[in-house]
Design goal:
- This protein has four helices and two strands; from the N terminus they run ββαααα.
- β1 (2-4) and β2 form a beta hairpin.
- A two-stranded antiparallel ribbon has the order 1-2.
- It is 56% helix and 8% strand.
- The mean pLDDT is 89.
- 28% of the residues are buried.
- The chain has a single domain (2-57), classed as BFD-like [2Fe-2S]-binding domain (Arc Repressor Mutant, subunit A, Orthogonal Bundle), CATH 1.10.10.
- The longest helix is centred in the last third of the chain and has 14 residues, at 42-55.
- By secondary structure, it is mainly alpha-helical.
C-alpha cells in the first residue's frame, strides 16, 4: 500500500526504515523520503510509528 503518494513510498519501505531505527516522521523523511513533501501522510506515518513502537513487531508480523 502506498503511504506517501507524493514520493510513492509504500508501507513496506516505511516499515523497513522503522526497523533500521526511524522513530519519528523526520527520521522517515530522511531515511525513505516519506513525509518529506506536502505532509499529507504525516497522520498515517505517525500511526504506523505508534503501532510499530507499541506492538514491537517486525514488519512481517505486522502484515500477518
Amino acid at each position: 500500500m502506498v503511504v506517501c503518494s507524493c514520493r510513492a513510498v509504500s508501507d513496506r519501505t516505511v516499515h523497513a526504515a522503522m526497523c533500521a531505527g526511524a522513530t519519528s516522521v523526520d527520521d522517515l523523511a530522511s531515511m525513505c523520503t516519506a513525509g518529506s513533501r506536502c505532509g499529507g501522510c504525516w497522520p498515517e506515518l505517525q500511526r504506523l510509528l505508534a503501532e510499530f513502537t507499541l506492538v514491537g513487531k517486525t514488519p512481517s508480523e505486522h502484515a500477518a
